[in-house]
Each structure stands twice: as C-alpha cells, then as structure tokens.
Write a structure and sequence with these properties.
- The chain is α+β, with helices and mostly antiparallel strands.
- It folds into 2 domains: 61 residues, no CATH class; 92 residues, Arc Repressor Mutant, subunit A.
- The chain contains 5 helices and 6 strands; from the N terminus they run ββαβαβααββα.
- The strands form 2 sheets. The protein has a 3-stranded mixed sheet, with helices on one face. Strands 4-6-5 form a 3-stranded antiparallel sheet.
Length: 170
C-alpha cells in the first residue's frame, strides 16, 4: 500500500476509539511513534502530504522570521512551537538558532522553563567560527529528514512500525 494514497490502519487499540490523522509526512520515525503512543488511536489515517520545505534557506528564513516577531514583543520563543510550526524537529530549530546567533543576527540570552528561550537582537557581527560547522550539521539533519519523508511516502505500513489490521483499507 502506498501511503501517499491515504492508507488506513484500523483496530490498533481496543480501548480507545479515537482516530489519528497524519496529514503531513513526519520528519522522523520517532515522532510518528510518539504520535501513535500518545494518542493510542483505534485508527490512523496517513495522508502523506508534502507541507514543508526542508531546505536550509527556507528553514533559516522561517526561524529568523519567528525570532524577529518575538523580538517585536517579549523576546520569548518556544522551541517546540517553532518546530511544530515548521513541521520539523526541535534539533533543527536549535541548530538554526545557534547558526543565526553565529551570524550576529540574534543573541540567545537565557533558557527559561522547558524549551522557552529569551532572545535579544544580534550585534550583526559574525563570530570567528562563522558557523560553518553548525551549517554543516544543520544541512545533515535536514538531509536525514528529507530522506525519511521520502521513505515514509513509499514504504509499506510494516516498515513504518505501524500495524495493519485485517480490516485495513485504502
């Protein structure tokens, strides 16, 4: 069954009658498993829509835009909300923030409760290390996400770690 056609998995949990609709392709198998474990649905609908742009240029532009918006207000950002907004991982958001800081665009001031962070405007001065290692790590992380999204779209349910019941249909 090709997941891009809206595969259904029925009967995953006998104790819960909820349905989990996975509209977009998840960035990692861990997130897909977390969604299943958290919701414990009796049915999962996989739509597999491509709703994100996993290029480094797009991600950095979006993260910088969210930082700019935060700096116009209280200067507080929440990593989990940013990653959900972008449809990516918290690791990607954190590396993007560090790269933006290395470019002098923002200052990461203080980690607050959980995944909240206080920002300040940057000095516009690029650090000596120029962020080349951070950029390479971010590129690698995004390449892994793109690869998983391709795998998700062409894989059978079993390969995704999801159980297909005897009554599953397309």
């Amino acid at each position: 069954m090709a997941l891009g056609t809206g595969g259904r998995i029925a009967g995953l949990s006998d104790t819960n009658s909820s349905t989990l609709v996975v509209w977009s392709t998840p960035p990692t198998p861990e997130l897909l498993q977390w969604m299943q474990d958290t919701v414990q649905p009796s049915e999962i609908v996989l739509c597999g829509q491509n709703t994100t742009d996993d290029t480094i240029q797009h991600v950095l532009r979006q993260v910088a835009g969210m930082c700019k918006y935060a700096l116009e207000g209280d200067g507080i950002i929440t990593i989990s909300k940013m990653s959900a907004r972008l449809g990516t991982t918290e690791v990607v958001v954190r590396r993007s923030l560090l790269l933006l800081e290395s470019q002098g665009l923002i200052l990461l001031e203080q980690w607050d409760d959980g995944d909240r962070l206080s920002l300040q405007p940057g000095t516009r001065e690029t650090r000596q290390d120029d962020g080349s290692l951070l950029r390479a790590e971010l590129e690698e992380e995004l390449a892994e996400i793109r690869a998983y999204r391709r795998f998700f779209l062409r894989s059978e349910l079993k390969a995704l770690g999801l159980q297909e019941s005897a009554t599953a249909s397309e």
